[in-house]
Write a structure and sequence with these properties.
alpha+beta, Nucleoside Triphosphate Pyrophosphohydrolase, two-stranded antiparallel ribbon, 24% strand, globular, NUDIX_hydrolase_dom
Length: 95
């Protein structure tokens, strides 16, 4: 199953700070500039609990393709064309 990096916002943390932290934790990648794209309400099932969430999407521009190593709860990293990311949106809203 494919997914985008992400997670929950910690107390006293902005949405942008959370995105930067999650990218660092999951991919070991330091990013510095984010552009907000879109957000929508969703649900996140964890074991027997259903959480109401707000999924937020950002664009990050990189000068070059970095070497990324899967960390945290990531098994594998795969680069995809930015136009194919709509798949992740559709997949996320379909459950």
């Amino acid at each position: 199953m494919y997914d985008l990096p992400g997670g929950f916002v910690d107390p006293n943390e902005s949405l942008e700070q959370a995105a930067v932290r999650e990218i660092k934790e999951e991919l070991g990648l330091s990013i510095h500039s984010l552009t907000y794209v879109h957000s929508y309400s969703n649900t996140y099932q964890y074991k027997t609990v259903e959480y109401k969430t707000c999924d937020c999407f950002f664009i990050v521009k990189l000068n070059q393709k970095p070497t990324v190593i899967a960390q945290d709860d990531v098994a594998e990293v795969q680069w995809v064309n930015r136009y194919h990311t709509v798949y992740f949106y559709i997949n996320s809203t379909s459950h």
